[in-house]
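Question thread 4412

I'm putting together a teaching handout and wanted feedback from people who do this every day. The idea is simple: show students a protein as raw sequence, then show them the structure tokens that encode its fold, then repeat with a second protein so they can compare. Below is the first pair exactly as I plan to print it.
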Amino acid sequence: MDRETFHNCYSLIKIPRQSCQQYRSSHFVDYIERGITYTKFFKNYLLPNQPCMFSKKFTEDWNCRKHWVTDDGKPNFQKLLQEFDETPVPVANCSAKEYNANPKQIMAFKEFIQYWREYIQNGHSSPRGCLYLKDWHMQRIFPEHDTYKTPIYFSSDWLNEYWDTIEMDDYRFVYMGPKGSWTPFHADVFRSYSWSANICGRKKWLLYPPGQEEFLKDSHGNLAYDVTATILQDKGLFPHSDKACPPLEIIQEAGEVIFVPSGWHHQVYNLEDTVSVNHNWLNGCNLDIMWQFLQDELLSVQKEIEEWRDTMDTWHQHCQVIMKSCTGIDYMEFALFLKTIVNNRISFLNSCPGNAVSCQGNPSEALCALGPHHAAFDLQRVIHVLESMLSNEDFKRLEPSALGFSPDELLQEIREAVHTIV
């Protein structure tokens, strides 16, 4: 990030984003044919939360595109088996529905490839249903495999930065599925961004801007499983479905990379035998969206168990436990997440004499590439959210000793660090 962009963003409290009405008249997304500056991507897509597509030029030097794909553009089963063979992988059955999702099982990679070959030979059908290898943490399991490189546009990735730090999880995935496999209607974890690159094959995306999902819930408040199903025309079951705008329908070709903004609900189909890489990620641009999502999730839990509020001394703590079991995070871990991000950026700024743009030897490649002004922007966004948290009644109920740090002191430390670069 350059100095001018930082100073333009410095005073932002609420990031301006396009309204749903603006999306209603839009039937296309920007197609980025060749390299653009990070600053332009930041201004045109990250801040306004706007989708776009990158051409195959951005992935043409990836090893996975060279080695996982045959000369005729199909998945290279032989090469993939050489690399992964007996590796356990998560496989969903797209032909079955379980709690508004597809049931999953763990199987050996070679068993899935054997199934896939038979599925193709049988005209893309099988009595076992349509199986889809998805949400596989390939990068975490095989860190030595130099299969792809995250484009710089997506490198300000707090989500994976945090989980890499605590060495517990990550949100980097590989998907492999036959023609006809698909993912039901959903929004990504924590309302994060996602980027998805097709190594081979083609996908169809149906995207709805934030807020439209409210019209695509049934009379009980449950999100639609399949937005193309005729059942949505039943006014008794889906009373508001006719108010939803038409989705953005995007065809993603081999090698292309789609950027899916924060909170955009989507449904995805594999139009051919397809292999893809996907990351969920967030940063200062959509941190406020994640914080609002967590507040909404906690409120939903509180409403669900309201009747026990006066009978349980630990009712508020129980709400946090339930929220974490449903979403994967609670207020305490969110605070620890922010502290990790803050510590990394303050350390980075302290290691840059005179706030030089190039910082030799700094452990974070992404922070070095994006520069000190981006680190300062990140800290400024944390200030905004942390101030909101400190005034939040549910956050105030957390035990300070359990946090292990003082949020007020952290806030003051961030302000001092940002002041040095402003």
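The second pair follows. I'd like the answer to focus on this one:
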Amino acid sequence: MYGLDLSSNQLSGEIPVEVWDLKNIISLNFSSNCLIGSIPDSISNLKNLESLDLSNNKLHGNIPPQLADLNNLGYFNVSYNDLSGEIPFKAHLVTFEATSYIGNDQLCGLPTNKSCKISKDFEKQFKEEEEEEEEGDGLIDMVWFYWTSGGVFISTSLVLFASLFIDSRWSREWFYRVDLFVHRVQSFKGRFLCN
């Protein structure tokens, strides 16, 4: 088999993996269907491929850089899919025009005029926002830590003050020490002001 044209047949699902084993195939046309999935790296098995049309489907993911290994590829069209990432623009792939890629909003690089730097900056910003959200989860734990610490402090203080109000030897000793401390502070203050 040298050519396979299954265009406009309302095909759905992924492209069967057996297709990528047709080593002598020259032309593949799966355009205008409802195919999903990604273009597999095993496309590099089709060394004799001269024409590949996957346009007007629902394919997603990156365009595999292995396409550059297909030296005979003269026609290539993946327009109007959901492909994303940087277009592999090397070897003979530089000969394909922007029309081969239109309708894929997430594709960037040559031959389109869309910069991949913006996409990379967006991905970096998205990752930073995710990290901040994860750190934000840690802040919620810190808030609970502060509330718990405050509750423990208040409870301990109440128990301490309650025990001081009970007439016991320990509470009398405590008030004596506090009174002695206040007296020393006042005498130190009096000496300091007089000098």
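Top answer:
Good format. For the second protein you could add a caption like this: Helices lie at 116-165, 169-194. The mean pLDDT is 83.
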